[in-house]
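Re: your question about Peptidoglycan bridge formation glycyltransferase FemA/FemB family protein

S., sorry for the slow reply, the queue was backed up all week. Below is exactly what I fed in.
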Amino acid sequence: MADFTARFADPAEQREWDSLVTDNPGGGNLLQSMAFADVKSRHGWRPRLVVLDGPGYTSHNLVLEKKVPLLGALWYLIKGPAVNEVDHVAPATRAVAELARREGHRLFAIKVEPDLLDGPAARETLRAAGLVKTFNLQPNDSTALLDTTAEPNQLLRTLHSRGRNAVRRAIREGVEVQRMEPTEETFRAMYALMSHIEDRSAARMRSFEYYSRFWQNFVDAGQGRFYFVHEDGEPSVGAFVINYGSKGTYKDGGSKPGRRQYGDSHLVQWTAITELKEEFGIVEYDFCGTPPADQLKDKDHPHHGLGLFKTSFSKTVTDFVGCYDLVVSAWRYRVWNLVAERVVRQVYWRRTHQPFY
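Result:
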């Protein structure tokens, strides 16, 4: 079994955090960024920056801490631990548990969600290592990923015919995509467009304050930007996209129903992809959330329509292993799992109108 040690990041590492994260196995994840850590610090979580030293590599991991009355603390390695093999997940997580014990933190569980591909072998490896499968938290635990390494003309030809034809028609019919300044007006317009998506699904949107802080943080870090299409002088399609290391991500989006401009949403994405590729050299673009691969054709899935749109670019769905728990205290975890988690999430929603996670 691989050996790992864990420690808290020193001040120099904290100052260079994003560049260190993007050197992680797999290229890092925007949800491990300093911009996102600040967002979560304003919504009930305490960020901790943890360095894992493993067999031949080092990774930098954002850990989110939330304390639960009577039970102690839950640590959440969001999109981590950043390891390069599935059999490294358990020893890396146990190293984090040992760090918590050594530093006097009373944990009952550690939640992990490494960006490693799902499959029977991966699931059995994690189960055999004592990790407990739980419900997934992030929208891109199943997602559409586009390899963007080809030159633009060739890249367009690699898209699914539905996406390629929509982009070409939108260009031919003069649809205009605008890069928007990150103003209060843009934030409000983006949030309003996102609310139309909520109207058509069972999703619970976070508050405007949450999104505005998220957007502003990534803009200020030089990692976020908005693209809009307008119809009749009003925003009709909007997207907020992020460049983080070698990856681009379609993080937030929305659109008005009943639009007349065919292919407008496709052209927004194509514009974002080509500009991020040209300016930052991204090699991958994450459409950030689809139904799992085996549910993509299920018309009753709440994200069926989004899945069809996003796979019109990438053709296929990538499933990651999703969320697992490392149990630190068996009896306290049992209380959490049977009763406390459900109660805490309900109370937190009623008190803050924000999701617990």
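Residues 5-138+322-352 form a domain with the Aminopeptidase fold (CATH 3.40.630.30). The first strand starts at residue 5 and ends at 8.

Happy to talk it through on Thursday.
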